[in-house]
Specification:
The chain has 13 helices and 13 strands. The radius of gyration is 24 Å and the shape is elongated. α5 packs across α6. Helices cover 32% and strands 16% of the residues. The protein is of the alpha/beta class.
Amino acid sequence: MIKIMDKQKIFLPDPQAKSNTWSLPGRTSCDRLFGMHSRYDCLVLFSGGLDSILAAKVLQKQGLRPLGLHFVSPFFGRPDKIASWQEMYGLDILATDISEDFVRLVTQGPRWGWGRHLNPCVDCKILMLQKTKAMLPQFQATFLATGEVLGQRPMSQRRDALNIIRREAGVKDILIRPLSGKLLSPTRIEEQVLVDREQLLEIKGRGRKDQLRLAQEFNLPEIPTPAGGCLLTDPEYVKRFSPLLEHLTPPKAQDFQLATVGRQYWANGYWLIIGRNKADNENLASLVQADDLLFKLTSLPGPLALGRQAADPWPEEVIRDAARCMALFSSKAAKSEEPVTVRVGTSRTDIREFTVHPQDSPQLQWEEPGC
């Protein structure tokens, strides 16, 4: 039998790592409050990057109580780091899952256009601010804040883009950008003296000198390295995501999560994922859906493979061909001169066995995305 993990976890990769190294908890645990206060002065978009940390600290220095909101989707988010961030920076932080809304944004197409790859940066920030605004009453908070820096990012942090974002999100009067506040028009929050404008900063441009100086002033024990945290800005991950937009109608959040795991192969719209190592195999097992096909060699070590039956069931000849393709990634099976047996099944069907010859080339053209 093919063992499927009972407890579901959604594994996503660290963009800086060569393998998958962290997991995204389910939505219930992601949204739960642990030791949170019931009231905050403001809600801060908190990515875990230096700018969002500094924005929260600038407000905290004024005697305000900020709550960092760390949004999570298949493309960004590190909820596993929240406990260490809270301890390290002396901030309260809450992870909030916006996977479904964000995937809908990607699949329907952003109103304000794509970035260099598949990144809808302006629409992304609008969505986050709308979600944050809706949470203000929950924490009796008065305003929102972000770590945006004027002129830092070419798509979403130009002056005109910053104005579009606050207007379209409906937060024109209640959004503070502490790091560039003195360079921007005063908001109602500043005019009502809820935030002291004189203590806001005037950082601009793409350099980090001012931020590093400010980090020293706040005695931050660790300074995050600059890196793109969104997989939609990474061309290698975009190659993996693009076939989903072409072949699935529409792709779901878990489809994008699955696209980050293992070796990805497509043939005539059929999607096969093959584990590269033990971590990949565990990730695949955790992402199995009811109609997914699981492939496993019966008597030889080898990878776990998953075939996602997104629409119609796969024909038997396609299943057999996928089994032959998967067997090629078992070194012992590939070197064997004998046929091997692959067990294939879903949670809704009986396990079937296919005898295949790894030496025979697959009949279908299984290709990695972008090849």
